[in-house]
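Why this split exists: single-chain examples teach little about how molecules sit against one another. For that reason, every record in the complexes split bundles all components of an assembly together and asks for one structure covering all of them. Below is a record exactly as it appears in the raw files.
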Amino acid sequence: MAKRIDVTDLDVFYGSFKAVEGVTFSVEPRSVTALIGPSGCGKSTVLRTLNRMHEVIPGAYAEGTVLLDGEDIYGADIDPVNVRRTIGMVFQRPNPFPTMSIKENVLAGLKLDGKKRPKSELEGIVEKSLRGANLWEEVKDRLDRPGAGLSGGQQQRLCIARAIAVEPQVLLMDEPCSALDPISTLAIEDLIEELKERFTIVIVTHNMQQAARVSETTAFFNLAGVGKPGKLVEIASTEMMFSNPTQQATEDYISGRFG
Amino acid sequence: MADLTRREHDESEALLHEALAGGHLPRWSALGVAAASVAVAFLLNLTTGVDGVAGTAVVAMLVFLVGQTAWSFVVEGRRHAIDRLATTFVYATFVIAVVPLIAVLGTVVVKGAEVISVEFLTTSMRYATPTSEGGGIYHALIGTLEQVGIAALFGVPLGILTAIYLVEYAPSMRTRRLAHSISFFVDVMTGVPSVVVGLFVYTAFVLTLGLERSGIAASIALTILMLPVVVRSTEEMLRIVPRELREASYALGIPKWRTILKIVLPTAMSGIITGAMLAIARVAGETAPLLLTTFISQSINTNPFKGPQAALPTFIWDQFTNGTDVSVNRAWGAALVLIVLVMVLYATAKLISRFTGVKSS
Amino acid sequence: MSTTLEPPGAAAPATGTPDIRGAAVRRGDRVFVGLSRGAGILILVTMAAIAVFLIWKSIPSLQANTANFFTTSEWSPDAKPVVFGIAALLFGTLMTALIAMLLAVPVGIGIALFIAHYASRRLASTLGFVTDLLAAVPSIIFGMWGIQFLTPQLQGFLQWLTTYFGWIPIFQNDLGIYTRSILIAGIVLAIMVLPTISAISREVFVQTPRTHIEAALALGATRWEMVRMAIFPFARPGMISASMLGLGRALGETIAVALLLSATYEINWHITEPGGITFAANIALKWNEAGTIGLSALVASGLVLFVITLAVNMGARLIIARRSEFSGAN
């Protein structure tokens, strides 16, 4: 189920502006890797290049290689639509489709391939995905109610259920808790702990405590200067990063001196 | 044992590749299919009953749709084929929007330019007949300027006042019922057909109040047509004036009505002018209400309150329905003048809104 | 605006209660409120007056009519006996509008999609300008263009349609003449209502939250699947009301149709044959030759048109209004 990711010499551009430069790192399967850094340092941009979501922004393109278990996701015969199906994504703000019910939301990605599936199988997937997102007990009696009626934290877990319903290999999370209250945040963090048994997870977070709590590996991104591209400063095990970083900038950032 | 895991690994790699990969049409596919479809359409043009530029173009488009979809279906699969079909349709609508505009403007310019001359612009139809050359639109031009001018004189202030009520006063009222119904009926009024407005002005002002069928009756109809457009655009402009500006003025102890006159309106002025000009452009080409509320005159009448008065749209109607070549040509000449008038108003309005004033989001 | 820091002089006169100090302030505001409210009320009065006068002035002809107003096709209100009815008018109006809608709704929505989500920004603003210009062309010019440019262009296509699809009754053409038909009028109407439909649809399309679009794409949707998954559900009420506003315009369009149709008072399903008449076109064409009862009869038909367009427009507005209540949640 879970795959490793190898990023080599990644540059990302928005038109003529170089947003990220020379990023190289690897993500181990069945682990949580946190990308941290000050605003605008390109960590979300890097995350989006991992499933080619940056391509939906007009003028954005990436150079370098991103390998998923050795397979170049930017290869000539690779379909970005399939890449996104294999590498799921959860966004900053919970974004369930407002006109769909909870059940329809979970099945939204699955319905795309147009295959006919028996009702029992679909119900099984709904339950499995919602259980996987720790949401089943809360919503099992109102699966046909609109997803927008849930609380923010529940909506975010619904989005996670929607992402894992298509059985992706990797789950990308772009600040998944930044719009949530502390209790919902805790629920999501617990969920991440469980999800990493099955998926490779890369999470962007603003919250250093969160990175420390949920991740095995932490990557610190920083800007070389105003108007300059973002860079990967260092990547190491989370324990190392928070106790004994090798770079001064990392230490300054995690000790709260800037950012 | 090692062999087994090795094989498993290879298998999973192959599966992964399958999951990620997808067929691609070559980059030149769209152009290639397009060229092929045009060729096929020409062939059909030569061999079968499909004729005319329009017919050939339609056939080419259909062949393109079918060809590209089929190719994509085979190489890329059903989902991408549907996506390409939809994309082609969306791009085709672009062509469908542009072609009529070019055709309309082209026809008007080509046919109108033959007729336009100094004489055409400066004489009336007093001494011209449906079959004789000569004559012009001077009387109609005067009529249009007067009728539209008077309509603007009423319609613009009334519209701005209504918008001020809706935006500035109504929100602080105890009940908003009145404002809500005004707002609703302004919207509904936008949709009242112009011919119905003409009927209303005729029945109310001409039949009941004894007003003559004249320029002023036409102006009343145009005012009614203009009003909701001015209200809506002004409303929009007033709403984007920042609240801080108003509050700064209140904090200086300036009463509300002076704040509106001295702060809010000037800030929104360019937008309001833009909206008013668009409304004027819209009604300047209205024909139906004028047909109902005026009598068409062939000579100059500068008095909108008395007697028949021509206007550009009714001039066009009159000349075009005469049906003779000379008359129809005159109609096209007048159409060119009318369209230039409308487009100039329109373009100026757009330029004003682009280069000045409060930026809307 | 109603929330904070309303100065006493501003809020109080507006509520209409006479309990504030400062006579000078009050007078200015009272005059201004009076004027602006008066202008607003004038709009309501106008709308009411339109209804009242149309009803009142249509009574004489309706009383004199010896035929059924709704089922008669003939239009001879000034004859003896008085015979007129709106059956043919209703048929022509609905048929031309229906054709216009069938063509303009998909194309208009396509244009809106193109501008909002497919084209580059530069191309999008150009096309936005183009559709706005299309809206600015006076309708009489569309009518002339329809007769002198479009009709000849369509001859080949219409003949082809009859040859190969003549077995479908509506495309049957027994006359061999392909001008001044309901179909051509419908096509011209479609072009005329295109800007209305595309402008309003475009407005709601661009409001689709970016997060919904990205959610769909991140699930592995193609662009079209994204449109169906994220944009259409969000924009559906807007698309419906855009279409209805376009319909309202098509129903009430006068001069272009008056020029294009050959004004025959019968119900002819063969839409490529000359014939047909609409409410609005009939009023314009018969106005100057109508006698007292004739005018009244035209007013009566105008009343029916008014009621129909009113219903369509109010429906559209109610749908928009309901939608804006919903989108408050987003």
